[in-house]
Write a structure and sequence with these properties.
By secondary structure, the chain is an all-alpha fold. It has one domain (2-59). It is 84% helix and 0% strand.
């Protein structure tokens, strides 16, 4: 179940980044939001995974 949660949270974070990228493009910033969001997927996955690991470590710490 944890893997599914990481995937779901990552999906929503990347979607929010995509919306932000589209807003930047609409305001005149020369940016391809789809490429930027796609390039950030590995970083988002790692950050979400790391954050969930830290939460689990704190919950299960002696």
């Amino acid at each position: 179940m944890e893997g599914l949660s990481i995937a779901a949270i990552s999906y929503y974070v990347v979607s929010l980044l995509l919306y932000g990228g589209k807003a930047l493009k609409a305001s005149g910033v020369p940016l391809n939001p789809e490429i930027a969001a796609g390039a950030l997927i590995p970083l988002v996955l790692w950050a979400v995974w790391r954050t969930t690991r830290r939460i689990h470590e704190r919950i299960h710490a002696p």
